[in-house]
Write a structure and sequence with these properties.
79% of the residues lie in helices and 0% in strands. Helix 2 packs antiparallel against helix 3 and helix 2 runs antiparallel to helix 4. It is mainly alpha-helical. It has one domain.
């Protein structure tokens, strides 16, 4: 449990890719739609930006979920440590 709590929530390359992916995805999608002569109104552009921001949102949600699991691990470790501190050592 301690090993799982000590690991980083996300590997650094995943974080970097998630934050820089929209810079590549949004212009790529916009270029694809304009090349196909598909007109984009405000709703279309909003959908395009939402699709481009999906990696960031997915990374943040995954980090949040993993942080909740880590919080549970750390809480159990703290309870166990407190129990060991309060329980007198048995003389053998």
């Amino acid at each position: 449990m301690k090993r799982a709590a000590a690991r980083p929530l996300m590997p650094f390359p995943v974080i970097v890719l998630a934050f820089f992916a929209p810079v590549a995805i949004i212009p790529l999608l916009y270029t694809a739609f304009t090349a196909l002569a598909i007109p984009l109104d405000a709703a279309g552009l909003a959908a395009l930006v939402t699709a481009g921001l999906a990696p960031v949102v997915a990374m943040l949600l995954t980090s949040w979920r993993r942080s909740r699991v880590r919080h549970g691990y750390l809480k159990e470790i703290a309870k166990h440590t407190e129990w060991r501190r309060e329980t007198p050592a048995k003389a053998t």
